[in-house]
Each structure stands twice: as structure tokens, then as C-alpha cells.
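so ive been stuck on this for like two days lol. basically i have the seq below and the ligand is pyridoxal-5'-phosphate, smiles is in there too. i just want the complex predicted, nothing fancy, no docking runs or whatever. if the output looks off dont worry ill sanity check it later, just need somthing to start from for the group meeting slides
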Amino acid sequence: MEPGPHGVLAAIGGTPLVPLTRLLPDAPFRVFAKLESANPGGSIKDRTAFAMLSAAIESGTVVPGRSTVVESSSGNLGIGLAQACRYFDVRFVCVVDPRTNAQNVAIMRALGAEVHMVTERDAETGEYLPVRIRRVRELATTLPDAYCPNQYANPLNPFAHRTTMREIVDALGAAPDYLLCTISSCGTLRGCAEYAKDHDLPVRIVAVDAECSAIFHEPVGRRLIPGHGAAMPPALLRPGLADEVIHVSDLDCVVGCRRLAAREAILAGGSSGALVSALHRLRDRIPAGATCALVLADTGTRYLDTIYDDAWVTALFGDVTELWDDTLETAAC
Ligand SMILES: Cc1ncc(COP(=O)(O)O)c(C=O)c1O
């Protein structure tokens, strides 16, 4: 295989960093958003998928036309791998659970992936993730020439996100004072943090996790919004990667997403809303003149029947429109 990305995969990375001037118009600091939805598969996970698959092909572990890649994903990595596997003519089996939305499954299938849905929760934790991981192991041993990239432990996952941080620094011409990113497998956080450390960048890294995630503390319930958060601490997590951790609720994600859409015309996914709410919480501590960068992981088009669906939001949280509605906020002033 020739080195470097090919065809559509060459469009991975180099995503835009846009200034957000309307989100917090009176803030004395600058905010920028890295739009990872501009990757061809629509999310941050294209970087991870390409890095893991191309290395496996280069090393001969995966042979196009013969091998099968098996992976567990709640959606975005599955789409990234479906895209990369289709491109390289590698069979792909993705193990998902009922929290994966139907659109993500349809996208993976349209790209030629075979989707295995686990339906039962783990008896001990009540979570789907352990069941998904067990299913992947079974498939990896029963399918011929199977390879599991295992995003939760593969060092190429964080390695792929060093470029995310490098691109932010290049676009700004300097390191941001604050970097906010969400966490699940820890690829984004670790890749950005390690790049910053290796280059002595004076950036404060804020990891944003779901309230009900088990990454940094005992989980306190079930998460509704997929993407950030995890049912167990990821193997890639290392102490000291984040200078600070902020936990946000599902409602915070909805409010953050709706604010981003209303004020900046950016339709982003649930974890991006988590970052917006975390930024609101941090705002009084961010010094004047500082620069903040938010890594917006995916597109909101995959959340149209949840976060951007009024009936879904009202059924779960009641009438919460005033939490993001600009008109109401102005009227109240
Ligand atoms: C929408 C979304 N946000 C955030 C994350 C967390 O990224 P990471 O796995 O790099 O920690 C993911 C991971 O799949 C995701 O899909």
C-alpha cells in the first residue's frame, strides 16, 4: 500500500477552527470551535479509524479482500471504520447496542458494514458496553482472519489526535490557553494532552465527562446521550492528562447544543453541547484576553430525533426552552 491517506480518506483532518463570537458575546475571552463534523465520516473518529486501519494494513495484520475488522462502537467510530474499510476493501463487522441511533446504523450499512446489535445489558453493571466487548472477542475468535483494532486500548487512537491539537495551534498561531474536549475512549484527550506536553504548550486542558460516566468516579445513573462518557475507565487513561474535569448532565448537553444552534448556527452533536455547557460553567474563571478552543466531536444531524426533537426533549425534561431561547432571554432582561 502506498503511504498516506487515499481518496476520500485524504479529506480526514485539517478541519476548520471557527471563532464563536455570539455564544458568550460579553465574555472578555475568545472562543474557537474545531469542527470535527467536517471530516468525511462526520466525526472526530475518522482520525482514529484511519490511523488504526492503515497501520494494520501496512503491517500485514489486515489484508484487503481477506481480513475482517471487528469493533465495538456506539456510532462514530463505527462510521469511520465502515468508511475506511469500504475504501480499502476490508470486511467490517460492527457491534452496537440499542443506544446507537438508527441513522448511524443505516450509515454503517450503507457503507457496507455488517452490524451486530447486542440487546442484553451486563448483569453486574447494567451497561451494554461489557456485553459489546465480549461479543467482539467472540467474533474475533470465530471469524476467519479477524482483527479487532480495540479503540479502547490501541495507542494509535490517541496518536491520531495529536494532529487535532497541532491543527488548533497552527490555526491560532499559538497554543490556546484552554482546551475543552469530551472523553470516552480517551483518544482525543490523551492525543491533545500528549502533543501539548511534548511541545511544552502552556494550555489548560479541561476534560468534559458525563455525570453518569464511570471514568473519573462511581457512575450515578444511566446516560441517554451517546458519545462522551463510558461505563468503565478506558485503558488509555493516564493520570494527569487533564488539568480539570467537568461533569455535565444530559440536559446540559441538550441546552448546549440548542444554544450553539441558536446563536452560532452550528448543528453539533451531544458531546459538543456538553462542552458549551462546561464553558458556561468555567466562564467566570477564564481570564480576560484568554483563548479557548472547543473540540466539537460530531454533527448534530445524528441527533435530530433526540436533542433537536422538541417532543423528545419535553418528554424527558419538561418545558426547558427558556434555558436556551434567545428571545425569551432578551424579553426577560
Ligand atoms: C460524539 C463523541 N464525542 C466524544 C467522544 C469521545 O472521544 P474519545 O473516544 O476520543 O474520548 C466520542 C467518541 O466516540 C464521540 O463519538
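Strands lie at 17-19, 30-35, 68-72, 91-96, 114-117, 146-147, 178-182, 204-210, 244-248, 291-296. The chain has eleven helices and ten strands.
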